[in-house]
Amino acid sequence: MEVPKSPSKYKRIAKHKWLIKFGLVILVMLLLFLGFYLESETGKLNASSYYTVVVDCGSTGTRVNVYEWMVGVKGAIKGNLPVLLHSYPDNTTKRSSLWKGSCQYHCMQTEPGLHNFINDSLGVRQALEPFIVWAEQVVPREMRGNTPAFVLATAGLRGLALEDADRVLGDIEAVVKGHSFMMSKSWIRVLSGKEEAYYGWVALNYRMGTFDENYPKSPTLGLVDIGGSSLQIVAEIDVAGDDVHVMKSRLG
């Protein structure tokens, strides 16, 4: 892996182009937590690869990614964090009718956002099910029953009344239940703005290698995430005490 370059001290806030370039947005953070979950549940992780399906329900459309990753690797460059082996869609996926050539990174998307389908279970199914079917083709058959599927919504559903958002989430759950992936109701939910910002920051810094234990500690990158209906700004700071705008966490 190439040693990451330290950012200029005058440009620590990376602009939205970082997210577009690497296409990971909020998703890699889920892999980090999931790795620890599976390790505690199975105790069988001996450098085997695993898969995760993540559906991103944004304000302008719904997108899907499938990640293949590995945990329990001795001497892994990211210490005790999962190692991302591959993400889909990729260049081989362009034959799919879901592929959106207008995206500036590998993107499979249906439009509009799911918040437009209140009391429209058929609309939710038509927007979501093609992604689940596609993901089943990517994940090996023998791995599907152990592959979790996350469906995470952002600003579009955040703007709905609680009961309307719950109806849409219920319709989403009904679609996912009809397929072969692992599912938990807690994996189908609306992210808070703070969670969305934090996951984006972790995804960016994971991808850029600033969490890598085999290299001297480098400053983390900050993030400005300009979404379809929301804006998040996040950076690592030193702060004492409690602050409503500060999220404390420990990785690894």
Q: Care to describe what's here?
A:
GO terms for molecular function: ATP binding; nucleoside diphosphate phosphatase activity. This is Apyrase. Belongs to the GDA1/CD39 NTPase family. InterPro entries: GDA1_CD39_NTPase. This protein is of the alpha/beta class and 252 residues long. The strands form 2 sheets. Strands 2, 3, 4, 5, 6 and 7 form a 6-stranded mixed sheet that branches. Strands 1-8-9 form a 3-stranded mixed sheet. Strand 2 and strand 3 form a beta hairpin.
Return the CATH topology. Answer: Nucleotidyltransferase, domain 5
Radius of gyration: 18 Å
Order of helices and strands: EHHEEEEHEHHEHEE
Q: Tally the helices.
A: 6
Please describe the biggest sheet, giving its number of strands, its sense, and whether it closes into a barrel: 6 strands, mixed
CATH architecture: 2-Layer Sandwich
CATH homologous superfamily heading: ATPase, nucleotide binding domain
> Terminal Cα separation, in Å?
19 Å
Task: Give the tally of structural domains.
Answer: 1
Question: Unreliable stretches, pLDDT < 50, 5 or more residues?
Answer: 9-16, 18-22, 42-46
Query: How many strand elements?
Result: 9
Percentage of helical residues? Answer: 25-40%
User: Which geometry do the CA atoms define?
Assistant: globular
Quaternary arrangement of the chains shown?
Answer: single chain
Mean pLDDT: 78
What top-tier CATH class fits best? Alpha Beta
Beta fraction:
15-25%
Structural class: alpha/beta
Sum this structure up briefly.
The chain has 252 residues and is an alpha/beta fold.
